[in-house]
Amino acid sequence: MKAVIIGIGLIGGSLARDIRRSDPEATVLGMDISDAHLEAARELGLIGGKASDADLAAADLVVVSIPVDRIVEELPSILDRVGDETLVIDAGSTKAPICREVASHPKRRNFLACHPIAGTEFTGPAAAVEGLFDGKVNIICEVEETAFAIQERALDLFRELGMRIRYMNPEAHDRHIAYVSHLSHISSFMLGKTVIEKEKNERDIFDMAGSGFESTVRLAKSSPAMWTPIFEQNKKNVLETLDEYIANLKEFRALLDSDQYEALYEAMEQTNRIREILKGIPLNKS
Amino acid sequence: MKAVIIGIGLIGGSLARDIRRSDPEATVLGMDISDAHLEAARELGLIGGKASDADLAAADLVVVSIPVDRIVEELPSILDRVGDETLVIDAGSTKAPICREVASHPKRRNFLACHPIAGTEFTGPAAAVEGLFDGKVNIICEVEETAFAIQERALDLFRELGMRIRYMNPEAHDRHIAYVSHLSHISSFMLGKTVIEKEKNERDIFDMAGSGFESTVRLAKSSPAMWTPIFEQNKKNVLETLDEYIANLKEFRALLDSDQYEALYEAMEQTNRIREILKGIPLNKS
Questions:
Q1: Where in chain A is the domain with CATH 1.10.3660.10?
Q2: Digit-coded pLDDT (tens) for A141-196
Q3: Interface ipTM above 0.85
Q4: C-alpha angle with apex A78: A76 to A79, nearest 5 degrees?
Q5: Which of residues 150-209 of B touch A (CB under 8 A)?
Q6: How close, in Å, is residue A148 to chain B by CA atoms?
Q7: Quick one: DSSP state of residue B145?
Q8: Could you confirm whether domain A173-278 is CATH 1.10.3660.10?
């Protein structure tokens, strides 16, 4: 098996690790706008070296794990260059703009639109971990647009990685993911911003913050380069979730301001249901 | 050593475990408004049995680990009943209302106002864990109001538990803790509420939510019985933090709505500083 990873960071690098583990004979090569990342990935043993256009044409698998704005820009030209039987997958956190961009591409049948729900708040090849995808969900969009034989090879790979597959249309994906992922990142970034602005003396944050704060603010460590284009591409859905979140915060504020403690209690108690919901999530604490 | 734990939940129960570990000869008794909790705590080996008023009078240490509204209600009468040399500590997440309530109590010298920054989102005696306080910060307020000899015994106990001590006045405590703890809980509760309201079909949340969502929404599992009185007692500070948080969310919304992606990027990048700040926090992942 010959694989080319375009964008050798946390996701691409973790996938490279898993491919090499499951097939020690595999040739895994990389492409990256950062030469330093490519070199680090080679030193970490994630890739054997830099891929050329000839490698793209000869690849069994091409993984496009770059920020979503660059997927939209580069996916058409990547498809131009791959072979007739190459499987191309992405790992973007938005799906509608990407699927739209390649809808009428002559090699649309080579592409499978994916969103593996896996990752950490860290970035770059050094953040790559083995087994990142094990037990995680992989959301596949527009499966019917991909050639049967190519679909099949993708499913074999995901089974090998231990992933659970869910099929969804791109618009539904983008709408739901705005709630369970994109909004979490904004709430965390703005929580971090609020506390940093207030607490000029960082010693006070350091000493008084417990694991609860750490947990809620964890996503504020995430990469702006990755997240800015996600918010841009999913703008409509994200604005809607933000409006609902702000409305709920204002309602909480109004209840507290007018001393309606029973109503506050009830709002929190009803939200405790999240305990049962979360029990089903396969967690990745790394 | 004879200790009485009033409120034998996560905090009281964990303290009971640590006391018994460090002094196997210790007599540890409990009081609780819930007979079921008392019985569970006895069965779990956290306490030897139920404490009487005579036990309070003879106790070396009384721990008041109950919701903050009940601390304000009951602390004066607890102080009335303890012995002249009994050390009484609380573990409330607010400090100003509690300190005000007992300011002129004849036994004020027996009380040390504490806030151990330790805990999880779980409650009740079954949630008690050994070593919960190890490496954590304990914020002590108005230390000068406590008798020297009694202070000393408290510090010996905290050293035994592995805690780091920070002294602070009650008003500063309540102001800072609103940012690094109380606001986190509200942001998490309202995030959970927003997602639950939208996603009537819980299967969708379950399948698409990753560890990022789990982390940001973790505190929404917390007990409304514990948190409603905290928000009530710290209302003024909490309203202020909420206003700033909502203003930051609205600003983010406005930047996204008007396609100002460079400014969005910068806001997130500046908040990435939280990485360095968090490095100093002794985490409790349990």
A1: 173-278
A2: 999 999 999 999 999 999 999 999 999 999 999 999 999 999 999 999 999 999 99
A3: yes
A4: 65
A5: 166, 173, 176-177, 179-181, 183-199, 202, 204-209
A6: 25
A7: G
A8: yes
